Structure formats: structure tokens, C-alpha cells
Amino acid sequence: MINSLSEFKVTSAKALENPDGFWSEVASEFHWKSPWKQTLDYDFSKPEVKWFVGGKLNITENCLDRHLATQPNKTAILFEPNDPTETAQHITYKELHKRVCQTANMLMANGAKKGDRICIYMPMVPELAIAVLACARIGAIHSVVFAGFSATALAARINDASCSMLLTADGGFRGAKTIALKEIADDALTSCSTVNCCLVLQRTQQEVQWNSIDKWWHEELEKIDDNCPAEVMDSEDPLFILYTSGSTGKPKGMVHTCGGYMVYTAYTFKNVFQCQPNDVYWCTADIGWITGHSYIVYGPLANGATTVMFEGVPSYPAFDRFWEVCAKHNITHFYTAPTAIRALEKHPTSLVEKHDLSSLKVLGSVGEPINAEAWHWYDKHVGKHNCPIVDTWWQTETGGILISSLAGVTPQKPTFATLPMPGVQTVLLNNEGDEIEGEGEGILAIKHPWPSIARTIWGDHERYKNVYFSAYPGYYFPGDGALRDAEGNFRITGRVDDVVIVSGHNLGTAPIENAINEHPNVVESAVVGFPHDVKGNALHAFAIVRSRADDNETLKNELRALVAKTIGPIAKPDRIQVVSGLPKTRSGKIMRRILRKLAAGEYDQLGDVSTLLNPEVVEEIKQNK
Ligand code: PRX
Fold first, then answer.
1. Is residue 617 part of a domain?
2. What is the CATH number of the domain that holds 597?
3. Binning pLDDT at 50, 70 and 90, where does residue 586 land?
4. Relative to the CA of 401, which ligand 1 atom is closest?
5. For ligand 1, is residue 479 a contact (CB within 6 Å)?
6. Nearest by Cα to 166 from 176, 157, 178, 175
7. Best label site of 14, 124, 132, 142, fewest CB within 10 Å?
């Protein structure tokens, strides 16, 4: 663990000078079934990246088996249920190991084998983490789909990866609501021919329909023993697929592999959070997102930490639930999203003050830029000016944190993610693709691979190349803009493509437009983001309809329902505006830049609109807003 600023500087310099030697040393701390022959083999022009080439391992041995000798009775997963009156569960490393092995055997007994894709559509209960690890144990590739996605979105993801099995639950508790997961899964499976087994966990006990491929999880487990040797995996075998939004309608199934992902998530967890043996670490994300994969499951467990899984929401039963849970479990590390902070900041601070938060040592932020107000509120009311805040910048594609301060070790700067991790070579580019030296603002790019970079998009390597490696040859292009101060600290300024981060969720505008265009009365639509004080960004949809008579609340509700059905409720636009035209260039391209300014009400920053094909629509949009 890096313990001081000077050690951080030395480590970063060492990693820059000799990346292979540096990562090879980091990787040697893990348990490998056989060593790698070459540390790194890469060519960004293909693009191809391979780490720890030829090495054999199983990530679950590193997350579980290796801790059995030293700390079998330490809590691995601390589960806090949605309902605060339901007892929390402390699952020890020994017990977790046993349950993962048993679940792995259950998967195999139902036909799963190495290389199969298994879709997981589950609530935030321990069995979700166990299922993820059970897949990894047998070498099946897990594809977790966030339980807030709709049946259509679930089916698209199952079909894209040709999953042979679905793991789900009867339902899930989420605040005062119950989500009918099995019903949604049933709906999805009507259009998924590759799934031949659906294992159903009992969580809510609600009634469910039963199909020929369905089996109850608990009944299957009863027949199964818990001896399950870990499958031998190549370092570059896929560990999982996780879908993220892109600028076209189809989600991108990012593929992460076993060796590099393990080394990088474990290394960054250890150094960013600086967790000590008796600490209790809580990341409030859902395992359906990359944050949950890397920093609820794999990173913490690879370090033998205690990781909290929370089933509920920050507002249930009241807006002090986060603080109540922190006090109840003596949380030392609390990692959440700016959108949650902004939502909680709206409530009286007495809700924070009534709980004893003295156990807290480190706070974290992830998923979107944290604005100054939220940063200071977090620092003052939650951290009592006594906890370093790590603002961690990364992506589904990067697998782990690329830019962040190290808690209490490197300096923090409000609203800045600060410095890259050792071994991460971040640069700023201008529009021509030239590197900007020193202070400046531009496009963020990375010029050397780190171990957990996604290796491809499942089934579409060409798209992987086009999206991430073509705009600026020789660099990985994440799609974010950034500025850099004189000390080299980075502040992420936001997306530079058609992805909008709403409440920390990465949403492509194209799939939302496609959903809106499905409506028989809609001719064309364009969706853009605009600043929102709680969500960070919200969505503004512009729609051209067949007849102006259609411009009414019923239509808008139908459009919102279509989006919820096709993608999920998180993608519903806040505003829908019916327009007679969309601002277009003479070649017919929609001018999204102008729509973004219009949605934000920044009329004085529209620039010259006279060269548009239809400048009159700009005036009309302003008038009708
Ligand atoms: O725009 C950046 C923003 O979230 C995007 C990645 O989203 P996703 O793949 O869903 O992963 C989210 C969790 C890692 C990035 O391209 N983002 C993430 N973290 C930050 C951020 N923007 C600013 N500051 C951050 N700390």
C-alpha cells in the first residue's frame, strides 16, 4: 500500500519508466496457478491488449480461498436489507467460500460450463454477489443486467451475448416498492431462444408464473454439495460482459478478462481507499453497474476487506437511511454518487446530525463530476472536515479507477479527480489530436494500456476500434473532456459525445430517440441533456409529430411510457417538447450543440444559426419552451 506522497511520486515514476516491471511486481502478490510468460502485449492500432500473457488463475481463489487460512471468520459481506427491521447478515469468508462453491456446483448441475454466458438479473441481495463469484469459479462469463432495466432491454442483452442461463428472483424490494423481476424476466424470455434454464431465487415470496425451464434456486441448492475446485482460467479468458450505453441504439457489451481485471481492481481498491484490516467499507452502488462489480465484489474481496451490500434506497424509510446504516455498522469508508449527495443535501442537516458518524474515515464519489456545493456539503456534514474525499474517475470500459487521489495520502482538490493512478498515462488532446502540455483544457485520452482496460465489445471488435481507438490514433479515447491545473490535477468537465449522465447513469441519447420514434405519431426526435440540480443532467426530448393536434399530455405520457418499456424508467425524459422541425445543417445533420444550448436556456450562446437549413425553428423552439 502506498503510504506517503513521496512514495506515490516514486511509484508513479517507476510505473511510467517501466510499466511491465511495475505491473509484474504488483501481479506477483496474487495467487497464480501458473505464471505469465509476458507481462504485456499490445497494439492500439488493431486494437489488441493482453496482460500477463499465458498466466493461469482463478479470481475466486484470490477473493476467497486465499483468505481462508488467515481470516476465515472475518465478515466478507455485510448485508443490510431494504427493510431496516430485517436482520442484517454477516457472511464470513469461510461461509462465502462455501456458498460460492455450492452455487457454482448448482450452475454446473444445470448445464453451465466454462465459456457459457450467464445473465444475472437480480436484486441487491448476497446471492447476487455469490452468483457472480460462482460464475467466475467455473469460468462461465457473467453478464449482470441492472434490475431496473425493462424486459426489452434485458432481452436485447441476453440475445446479444447468447446467454444460455438466466439467474433471477421472484421479486426485489426497493424502498416501499416491490419490483416483479420474474414477471419482467418472463416477458424478456419470450424473445430469447438461447436460454434453456432459469434459476429463480425466492426473495419477496410474491406469486410468480412458472415455465418449463424454471427452477427454484433453494430447491436446486438442497441437492448440491460445496466442494468445487476452481476452474483454471487463462489470464485473457473473459471474466464478464457488462453493457454500457453508446452513441448508437445498441448497447455495448464490454468484455473484461480475468488476470488484468483482478490485478487492477485489487490494486486500486487498496491504494485509493487505504482500507485497514478492521475497516468496514460501504459502496452504495448496485452490482448491476461496473462500480458494484469492481468495488463491491472483486476489489474489496481480493483485499480481504469487509464489503457492505445494501438492498435499499437512500430515501427509505426516511432520508437519513445512509447515515443510519453508517452508524449501525460503524462504516469507515463510504463511497457514493454525487446525485445521491445532491438529493440528500436538500433535506435538513439534522437528518445527518442525529446519527453518530464518528466511525467514518474516508469518503468517495463516483459516476459524474461532483459540483463544488455537493463536495463541500459532503465534506462538512458527513465527513465533519475530517475525512479525505476521493473523487474517482473511471468507466465501465476502464474496469477500475484511473484518476483519483489516494485517501489521506495525496492531496485532494474539490471538484478535481486529481492525479492518475500509478501506471496510468493520461494526456489532454486538442481537437487536432495534439497533446496539450501543462495547464489547459481539452479531450482526455490515455496513451498506454493499464491491466483492466476492456478488451473488446462482445461480438463487435470493429465497433470497439471505432469508438475508442479511431478518433485519436495511438490513444484510448474515453469520451470525456477535462481540464488540468498547473499541478497536473484533472477535473473532468463532462462527456464530449452523445452520452448523458443522468443521476450517475450513463445513457445514450440514440436508444431513447429510437424508443420515442416507435410512437406512430412521431416523425423524428432528438434527445439532449441539460443541467439539473439533483440529477446532474436531465433529458430534454424534442419531437416532431404528425399533427400539432397530437401535442398534449397524453402523447407525452405515452412517449415516457415507451422509453420506460424499451429501456427502463431511468431513461424517461424530464421534458418533452413538440416542435415543427429540428435545427439541421445543410447536409441534414441535427445540430445537437444548438439543441443542448436551447435545452439549457443558454440563448446567448447559440452562435451563428443563419447557416442552418432551417434557422426559423430555433426561434420557434425558444418561444414555445
Ligand atoms: O463521464 C464520465 C463519468 O461517467 C462516465 C462513465 O460511466 P460508467 O461507464 O457508467 O461508469 C460509472 C462508474 C465508474 C465517464 O465517462 N464519470 C465517472 N466518474 C466520474 C465521472 N465524471 C466526473 N468525475 C468522476 N469522478
1. yes
2. 3.30.300.30
3. confident
4. 14
5. yes
6. 157
7. 14
**Domain assignment present for 393:** no
Q: What are the φ/ψ torsions at residue 331 (nearest 5 degrees)?
A: -65, 135
| Domain-embedded: residue 306 | no
Cell of 234: 487463462
pTM above 0.90, yes or no: yes
Question: What is the distance between the alpha carbons of residues 302 and 61, in angstroms, rounded to a whole number?
Answer: 9
Closest atom, ligand 1, to C-alpha of 391: 26
Q: For residue range 142-154, what is the model confidence (pLDDT) as tens digits?
A: 999 999 999 999 9
Q: Which cell numbers in the block locate residue 252? A: 455495448
Res. 493: pLDDT tops 80: yes
| Residue 618, domain extent | 498-623
Domain count of the fold of the chain: 2
Q: What digits encode the pLDDT tens for the residues 111-160?
A: 999 999 999 999 999 999 999 999 999 999 999 999 999 999 999 999 99
Listing DSSP states for 445-475 in one string gives: EE-S--TT---EETT-HHHHHHHHHSSSTTS
Q: Is any ligand 1 atom within 6 A of the Cβ of residue 105?
A: no
Q: Which domain-ending residue is among 182, 215, 231?
A: 231
Give the span between the Cα atoms of 478 and 198, in whole angstroms. 36
Cβ-proximal residues to 579 (8 Å cutoff; 6+ apart), any chain? 542, 543, 544, 617, 620, 621, 624
Q: The domain that contains 110 carries what CATH number?
A: 3.40.50.12780
404 C-beta closer than 6 A to ligand 1: no
Residue 163 lies in a domain: yes
CA 192 – CA 208 distance, rounded (Å): 19
